[in-house]
Records
---
Amino acid sequence: MAKQQTESWIPTRQQLLAAQDTTIPDLLRPGLAVVFVGINPGLYSAAIQHHFGRPGNRFWPALHLGGFTPRLFTPFEERDLLDLDYGITNIVARASAAADELTTDELRAGGRVLERKLRRFQPRCVALLGVGAYRGAFQKPKAKVGPQTETLGGRRLWILPNPSGLNAHYQLAALGKMFAQLRAAVTANDKTDEREST
């Protein structure tokens, strides 16, 4: 596998077109505090080989506003998340120009793969970014944003809004607050687990 570039660059139109149906390596290791789960990579992200790569995607600013990162990271610094105990994967691995190109069958198949992945890597919490995708992938038509009563792959589950710039329902400040709520819950759960283990 080629080494990922860590310096920002902008893909050409040809590179974007060539990224259709390609994949991006997961950013995972066992026992992470939180694994963030996107719907699937966009063409821009796939072309640069970094998650949430498109300018205008609010994932990285929301992560910072929520207190997960000490400063605003760029997609090209994504591997630094592992040092902070966070990871990234997707429901569906293949890149597309828009998430609505994915079929229900594809989402459901991706959901099964995701559950196996989560059972293997056992993060303490899963944050799925996109309530509509969650509803489709896991046949939960009434799911809402926030903490869930059910688990995913045996892990605690939160659903957060899709941070795409196309999601006009949530402005960046609101996304930041929701990410902060998740971080506070994860921190509180970690402290409870520490007390119970001593």
---
Amino acid sequence: MIKNIKNPRYGTGFTLFEVLVAMVVCAIGLLGLAKMAALAVSTTQNAGSRSLIAVQMESLASMMHANRNFWQSGTITSFTASGTTITDATNNLTALPGNGCVAPAICTPAQIAAVDVNKWVNDMNNQFPTYGATITCSAAAQIQITTSSTAPAPIDCSINVTWTEKQLAVNANTATGSATQISTQSFSVYVKP
């Protein structure tokens, strides 16, 4: 197209319409960046929670390894925990000793286990109030010794923790009712105390 040189209006500046189109394009881009930033913050927070859950479960596994006399005895087959409540059929883990086992030399393995589990439950409740834990211990297969006698079966324990976390929906197709969803997550660890 050939410009009219006599009319100076053709070669100068932007029209108001062009400026508005540029502002709309920039606004849409900024909204997309804001959504991505919110999603990144949400994902980072959830990843941090999952890491802390893994550390807490490893902490319980370490307590089981440290107190093998109790956990290998087969006294506990399973217990559950939610909040600060421990449900144990034998009541070994719910009854705390009066001295709090500050001097472990005078505590029985059952008392040490009760202190450890109660401390773990309180820590979990402080960090993850919506958690639920199920710990199940059972005897593994019997080991045959060459003298045809049977050795005591080792104990296998599974620790399963569930908790709820908020997840930010990426788009309208993944959102059911709102942009934020609450989902239940679970994590399991297997331990041989």
---
Amino acid sequence: MMEAIIEELENPQKKVRPLSGLSTPVYYDWPKILDQNVQSEILSLMNKVLEKEDTIGFPGPLSKEEGESVIGSLASSVATGSKHLLLMREQDTNRIVGHLILSPSTLPNCRHVAEISRVFVHPEYRGVASIRIGMREVLARCEYLGIDTITLDVRANTRIHKLWQALGFDTIGIMQDYARVNGKSYAGCYMYQSISVLKDRMSILSS
């Protein structure tokens, strides 16, 4: 499935499969406060993804204590406004099925730059439709915050790396020994793109 998504993003005019949308409607929101129920739901989704994937910074599902620390720290950052959290939810049930963190730079000379991190989506909701809608939300948020450039880093040569490439992100550089999982070393790729270029890219994908 991921290969078809990447092909479609790289060749938007080809449309290798229908773009009518998701079978279950979703919506996005940017919460300012994460109550305990939301924190628990985020951790549950995160651990479900980590059962099969280890590319979002953790080698596997988090323990209760680890999870409470990670999500609690995120909740504090969201409450202070230092990080912005995008949640994807099922329209009918409000169940959280996707997650993305946007972190504006705190340096005075770099306030036009923000970093995307910890992106994960429930396996049943992965597809071009959710990517297009989610990226539009991110771009709108960046414009609201005065962000002109997005940066990110990702384990090199993974499906998510290829997905960011397909969305138009350019490579800044490669870092060897970026991550170590079960004793194995992996390279990482640092990437960036301007909001204006991404907007043009998304307008093509939406046509």
